[in-house]
Amino acid sequence: MIFYWFKKIVSIFLSPIVIFLVLLLLAYIARRFDKLRLSRAVRTTAYVFLLLTTMPFSSKWLIAPLESISPPQNLTSSEVAHISVLGCTSYQQPQWPIVSRLADCSIKRVTQGIVLAHKFPDATLYFSGLDSVTDKTNAELGAELAQIMGIDEKRIVVINGTRDTRSEAQYIKARLGQGTQLLVVTDASHLPRSLALFKEQQLKPIGYPADYLANKIYWGSLFNYVPDYRSLKRSQRALYEYVALAWTHIRLYFVQNA
After folding, report:
1. Alpha carbons 163 and 15: distance in angstroms, whole number
2. What is the rounded distance in angstroms from the CA atom of residue 192 to the CA atom of residue 4?
3. The whole model's pTM is what?
């Protein structure tokens, strides 16, 4: 649990805005110590960094390598017995409609899971995600939406109590056993890390992306060079996933060579 909260705190500092403010603070400190050349260099770096992380062309270029996994084609029903829809975010607002209580990332993952469940009518659908103190969990909301959209309750398994992707993979292994093949539904940028964590549990995951952030770059379009909040969000997602993916591979290296 301590490590979980440590990761959450670290993720705050991977925000481009936070990095920008930290760089400005360092520039101010350098100036106070009469390091004027250093102060100017750090301040310039801060502004260039903020500009690049808020422009469409650079943010798309940054996240595109993470989204290289395409939806698998020509899968047969015999190959798909289990579909794991990884959790994202939900809101503790019971008075809201269910589609508003699930964040955009959750809606896309759940919807893609439902589409796959209709395509493979014999597959079991697994929903997971963070628990809630006062409201339904992310997993329960996903399962509820799936039933509304025509999926039989008997085909749905709700996984409560997971904190992150690794614990989701551990639960799936405990329930299905190692060597089980399954579809893993999540954001395209989240798939490389998710597949690594599921493979760590000796499972056979097939990645199925539910959301892409890096659409095609039209270099001749002026809008590719105008900063916007979507690009900031895209850059923040990319920075988080690169650091998390690097940490995952480092940890797996030491585990495998211990």
Report:
1. 21
2. 20
3. 0.89
**What is the average pLDDT across 245-254?**
90
Q: Give the mean pLDDT of 110-137.
A: 88
pLDDT at 73: 83
> Domains in the chain, start-ordered, CATH in brackets?
75-209 (3.40.50.620)
Nearest to 137 by CA among 4, 118, 11, 145: 145
Residues in CB range of 143: below 8 A, 6 or more apart: 125, 127, 153, 156, 158
Q: How confident is the model at residue 5 (pLDDT cuts 50, 70, 90)?
A: low
- Contact present, 39 and 28 (Cβ < 8 Å): yes
Whole-number pLDDT of residue 194: 96
